[in-house]
Description:
Blueprint: H1 12-41, H2 49-57, H3 60-88, H4 96-121
Amino acid sequence: MGIDLSELRYDPDMQAILYSANLNIAIVNDIYSFKKEVSQLSFAYANNLVKVYYLQFNNIQKAIEEACAKVEQTITELDRASDRILLRYSIETDTPLHKALTKYIMYAKAMCHGHLVWGYKSQRYSLCVESLEGGVDIIL
C-alpha cells in the first residue's frame, strides 16, 4: 500500500481507528457465525459475543440487538477518531503524511464494509441473504 504512518503509531485517534475497525470486524463475524457455531459446537462451546449477551439478557433477540448496537458504536468511534485526526493534520492537505492518513482511513473503513458484505454473500455462514438493504432477518 505504500503507507508509512509510523510517526502516528501512538496517537490515541490512530489507535482508536485501528481498534474500532478490528472490533467491528470481530463483532460482525460473531453475529454472522453464531448460528453456525451453536449448530456445530453446541451452545456450551460457542465462543461468541452473541452468546455472552445471551447469557447476560437470557433473550436471543436482545443479544443480537446488543451486538448490532456495538457494531454501530464501532462505526461511530471510527468516524469520530478519523475526523479528529484528519482535522489535526489538515493544515497542509498536500503532504505525504496527510495523503497516507486519508488512504489508511479509507482502507480501514473499506475492510469493515468488505467484511460485512463478504459475510452475507459467502456460503460460509449459510445466511441466504442477497442484500442488507431494508434490514435482514436471520433465523437462528
